[in-house]
């Protein structure tokens, strides 16, 4: 998926973390994200606002809001692995929630798109089975989007997982300068996946290594690691016809590789979407940690902008620092309406979100009531993220462009989340009584 979040210091200043972001974060912080299922899980993302062709707008100041109170309940017990064992309560009636008509219509369109996956996937949260979603999916096919609120009220009930306390961050689709053809100013190759990369399932050789994979290449009769970033940058893949495009800036491409996908804007204004096609199997290293430990970042400079500024000001040293991240991502051109999420479906700005599928079923709606107004409303879980872990953790997608960057870059909201599950699910699972909450003004 080709998307950026806010300034991900957790990834830049270290390795991938599955933890939840603390309250004490810099404005614009978003945790690292992982890409869709086809992307190797050992390759975490560093997400951030990079120096893009048309400038780098600051994170937008949040619009404050007062979240609806969660139903009093304990937090999920330590070690809880899935929503079904986290503690469940019935939430407020759907028609009491502040959901505007336009937002509901967007959610219905996205839900309709998710339905084929919902009815055939195994729900990792333990809350539902595919057949539970079939009635609402059948109804969604012909439901008038002008009455989308009525659709959700008819087919769903709200469920609170554990204490319902939620965190919402944001991400968006990045854009850097690039061209389909090599020309002056566009001379950094964007490579397709080479056909000599071999992936080995180690579980076939030992039960102790089940689920572990390595990538490499054959040299003579030996299986050896694939070329690392330095070797590729120095020409290991030249002359093989693997270039699908050319970027203008090696630093921008470096961070786009970490993200996994994005858009290239040519000098003629044409856009080319590229997405993850493969990875070389080499170790991922967060360069921010190296720079911090070496004292290279000035006080207050431990941000994405500070890291990029240092790399630009010290090009030779910066190149060496980037080479210390041996991991290298290969791309393919993507067609269609937009970037794809973990369901293999296009994600849509202001309605798609990344979640932990062990606590929110992929494809399901989730309602957020947060202390930042932009995040409030109904979101459809169509993606996952490496640091998006645990109950009620949602990473909201904002699309592409300056507005999306500005909103996602500063998104770090707290409040309450309720899942929307097929009506009758909670009764089957043995949940609690319906709660009542105040009815604030509807949002649009």
In short:
This protein is an alpha+beta fold and about 450 residues long. The chain contains 11 helices and 18 strands.
Description:
This protein has 444 residues and is α+β, with helices and mostly antiparallel strands. Helix content is 22%, strand content 24%. It has two domains: 33-171 and 338-429, RlpA-like domain (Barwin-like endoglucanases, Beta Barrel); 175-329, Beta Barrel (Ribosomal Protein L25, Chain P), CATH 2.40.240.50. It has helices at 9-12, 101-120, 130-140, 148-155, 229-233, 250-259, 287-293, 304-313, 315-323, 402-409, 425-429, and strands at 4-5, 88-90, 156-161, 165-173, 175-179, 188-191, 198-201, 213-219, 222-225, 243-247, 262-265, 271-279, 329-334, 352-355, 365-370, 377-384, 393-400, 412-422. A six-stranded mixed β-barrel has the order 4-17-14-16-15-18. The protein has a six-stranded mixed beta sheet with strand order 6-10-5-11-12-13. A three-stranded antiparallel beta sheet has the order 7-8-9, with no helix packed on it. Mean pLDDT is 84; it is low at 1-11, 13-55 and 433-444.
Give the SSE map.
Blueprint: E1 4-5, H1 9-12, E2 88-90, H2 101-120, H3 130-140, H4 148-155, E3 156-161, E4 165-173, E5 175-179, E6 188-191, E7 198-201, E8 213-219, E9 222-225, H5 229-233, E10 243-247, H6 250-259, E11 262-265, E12 271-279, H7 287-293, H8 304-313, H9 315-323, E13 329-334, E14 352-355, E15 365-370, E16 377-384, E17 393-400, H10 402-409, E18 412-422, H11 425-429
Parallel strand pairs: 4-17, 5-11, 14-16
Antiparallel strand pairs: 1-4, 2-3, 3-18, 4-18, 5-10, 6-10, 7-8, 8-9, 11-12, 12-13, 14-17, 15-16, 15-18
């Amino acid at each position: 998926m080709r998307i950026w979040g806010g300034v991900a210091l957790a990834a830049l200043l270290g390795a991938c973390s599955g933890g939840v972001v603390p309250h004490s974060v810099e404005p614009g912080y978003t945790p690292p994200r992982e890409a869709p299922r086809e992307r190797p899980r050992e390759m975490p993302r560093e997400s951030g606002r990079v120096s893009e062709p048309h400038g780098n707008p600051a994170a937008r100041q949040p619009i404050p809001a007062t979240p609806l109170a969660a139903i009093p309940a304990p937090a999920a017990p330590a070690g809880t692995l899935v929503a079904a064992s986290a503690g469940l309560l019935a939430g407020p009636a759907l028609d009491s929630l502040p959901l505007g008509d336009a937002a509901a219509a967007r959610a219905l369109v996205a839900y309709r798109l998710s339905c084929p996956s919902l009815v055939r996937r195994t729900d990792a949260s333990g809350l539902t089975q595919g057949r539970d979603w079939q009635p609402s999916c059948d109804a969604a096919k012909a439901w008038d989007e002008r009455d989308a609120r009525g659709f959700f009220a008819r087919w769903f009930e709200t469920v609170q997982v554990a204490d319902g306390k939620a965190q919402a961050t944001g991400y968006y689709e990045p854009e850097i300068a690039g061209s389909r053809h090599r020309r002056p100013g566009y001379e950094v190759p964007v490579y397709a996946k080479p056909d000599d990369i071999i992936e080995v399932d180690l579980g076939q050789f030992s039960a102790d290594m089940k689920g572990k994979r390595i990538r490499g290449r054959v040299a003579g009769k030996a299986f050896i690691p694939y070329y690392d970033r330095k070797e590729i940058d120095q020409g290991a893949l030249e002359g093989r016809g693997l270039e699908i495009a050319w970027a203008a800036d090696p630093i921008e491409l470096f961070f786009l590789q970490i993200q996994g996908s994005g858009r290239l804007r040519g000098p003629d204004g044409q856009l080319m979407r590229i997405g993850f096609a493969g990875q070389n199997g080499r170790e991922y290293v967060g360069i921010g940690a190296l720079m911090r430990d070496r004292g290279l970042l000035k006080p207050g400079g431990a941000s994405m902008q500070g890291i990029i500024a240092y790399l630009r000001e010290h090009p030779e040293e910066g190149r060496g620092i980037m080479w210390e991240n041996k991991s290298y991502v290969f791309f393919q051109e993507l067609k269609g309406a937009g970037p794809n999420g973990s369901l293999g479906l296009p994600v849509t700005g202001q309605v798609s979100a990344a979640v932990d599928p062990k606590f929110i079923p992929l494809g399901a709606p989730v309602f957020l009531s947060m202390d930042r107004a932009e995040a409030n409303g109904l979101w459809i879980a169509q993606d996952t993220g490496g640091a998006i872990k645990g109950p009620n953790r949602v990473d909201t997608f904002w699309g592409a462009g300056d507005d999306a960057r500005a909103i996602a870059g500063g998104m770090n909201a707290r409040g309450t989340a309720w899942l929307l599950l097929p009506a009758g699910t909670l009764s089957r699972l043995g949940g609690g009584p319906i709660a009542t909450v105040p009815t604030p003004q509807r949002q649009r």
